[in-house]
């Protein structure tokens, strides 16, 4: 391993400037320019985001940042003042969003007198699951959410962990592809929290998941990448941790084409203040460091991508709200 301060130069690029990042899989849900106002209060300002199948994305923000509003719009429960939404590349109207997404609200409305099975069956009927498919949909959903053993218990008698899983079951019973979770871990004890996180990771295999939270530590543990919402504005804060990706800073600051020309480098993404996210080919890091060692630039930062998340969150929100 080359010590950071022994690195001196970068190789010049032998060719032009290729694309900065590799093409990503097309998003399942895409939103562009969403704005929402409540009277004079602006809740969302030109919010654009995309969610892909298989990923869990954190939506981080302080109280009143606009998280619940954003989730309600993505769930098709609230119509934005402006902006557009696409599902699988096709413009999505609220009805399509409601059919293909499931929202777990901050406080799921649970009828205390209904049993767990009755509550899920009711949600299936309301969501329009055809009558002949309902029994199977309910049984599957109870099993997926670890609720089969408590199916006959009344919702009003459940622990907070089970209440939250019932809320999740209500959001999932119509088999949506997009799952929107509004502060789902508030009030869970450490064991319930661990199980809930595991459940979300299991569900990620078949869904695109957006999870809102106040807590950076929570999204760091559960999510693949983080969006920060601050006073209605959204910013991508970065990946939580990704194998083969590094946060890099060199002095003097290189051109993207110089970075891309280094051996072992697959793609680069410019960040503010001279930082880069660099993705490596398999075993590419050693080759890249060796090439850097042969040159004259100084390596000022070489860290796992995502290690700067806290610093970036504080910069984006201008506070210690996490
Ligand atoms: N129905 C409403 N009428 C008026 N203002 C509202 C309404 N709903 C939300 N707001 C305001 O819009 C802004 C965004 O609210 P929102 O609930 O989306 O934020 P949040 O990030 O989910 O907050 P919290 O974490 O406290 O739930 C806040 O200033 C809030 O006071």
UniProtKB/TrEMBL annotation:
Keywords, ordered alphabetically: ATP-binding, Nucleotide-binding, Transport
Region Disordered, residue ranges: 1-25
Origin superkingdom: Bacteria
Chain ranges of the ABC transporter domain: 29-256
Signal peptide stretch: none
Keyword ATP-binding: yes
Gene3D superfamilies named among the record's database cross-references: P-loop containing nucleotide triphosphate hydrolases (3.40.50.300)
InterPro entries the record matches: AAA+_ATPase, ABC_transporter-like_ATP-bd, P-loop_NTPase
Pfam families in the cross-refs: ABC_tran
GO molecular function, one term: ATP binding
Family the UniProt entry places it in: Belongs to the ABC transporter superfamily.
Protein name: ABC transporter domain-containing protein
